[in-house]
């Protein structure tokens, strides 16, 4: 078998928390990495389906941290249907802003 080597100058031990795949892992549990959700908070209103799907993919990654994510996103899901024209309504705007607000208040995050 091969030998395992570690460079101590590139290793960190006994850290209170670690950033990993868009999350912060600590003894308190798993939380959203505030650096990763900053993009969602600054996201401008989507002008087309492609921009909308990019936003939905970003916030959807953290859906487990947002209580009632599906219910909040419901007005937006119709925008993904190919047979319907992309029309941004007032309910879409409210849902969009609510998702951004809820993402901002995920556990251990507060970028506002």
Shape: elongated
Helix-strand string: EEEHHHH
Oligomeric state of the chains in view: single chain
Rg over CA atoms: 18 Å
Mean pLDDT: 84
Give the CA-CA distance, first to last residue: 52 Å
- Structural class of the secondary structure composition? alpha+beta
Low-confidence stretches: 108-112
Q: Biggest sheet: strands side by side, in what order?
A: 1-2-3
For the secondary structure, the number of strands is 3
Largest sheet: 3 strands, antiparallel
- Give the amount of beta strand, in percent: 5-15%
Can you give me a brief rundown of this structure?
39% of the residues lie in helices and 11% in strands. It has helices at 34-41, 49-60, 69-77, 90-104, and strands at residues 17-20, 23-26, 29-32.
What does this structure look like?
39% of the residues lie in helices and 11% in strands. The protein has helices at residues 34-41, 49-60, 69-77, 90-104; strands at 17-20, 23-26, 29-32.
Tags for this model:
4 helices; 3 strands; disordered C terminus; about 110 residues; about 40% helix; 3-stranded antiparallel β-sheet; alpha+beta
Secondary structure layout:
Elements: E1 17-20, E2 23-26, E3 29-32, H1 34-41, H2 49-60, H3 69-77, H4 90-104
Antiparallel strand pairs: 1-2, 2-3
Helix pairs in contact: 1-4, 3-4
């Amino acid at each position: 078998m091969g030998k395992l080597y570690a460079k101590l100058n590139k290793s960190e031990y006994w850290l209170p928390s670690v950033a990993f795949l868009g999350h912060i892992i600590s003894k308190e549990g798993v939380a959203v990495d505030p650096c990763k959700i900053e993009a969602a908070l600054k996201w401008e209103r989507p002008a087309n389906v492609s921009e909308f799907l990019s936003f939905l993919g970003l916030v959807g990654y953290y859906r487990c941290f947002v209580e009632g994510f599906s219910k909040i996103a419901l007005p937006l899901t119709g925008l993904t249907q190919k047979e319907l024209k992309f029309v941004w309504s007032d309910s879409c705007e409210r849902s969009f802003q609510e998702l951004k607000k809820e993402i901002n208040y995920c556990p251990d995050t507060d970028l506002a």
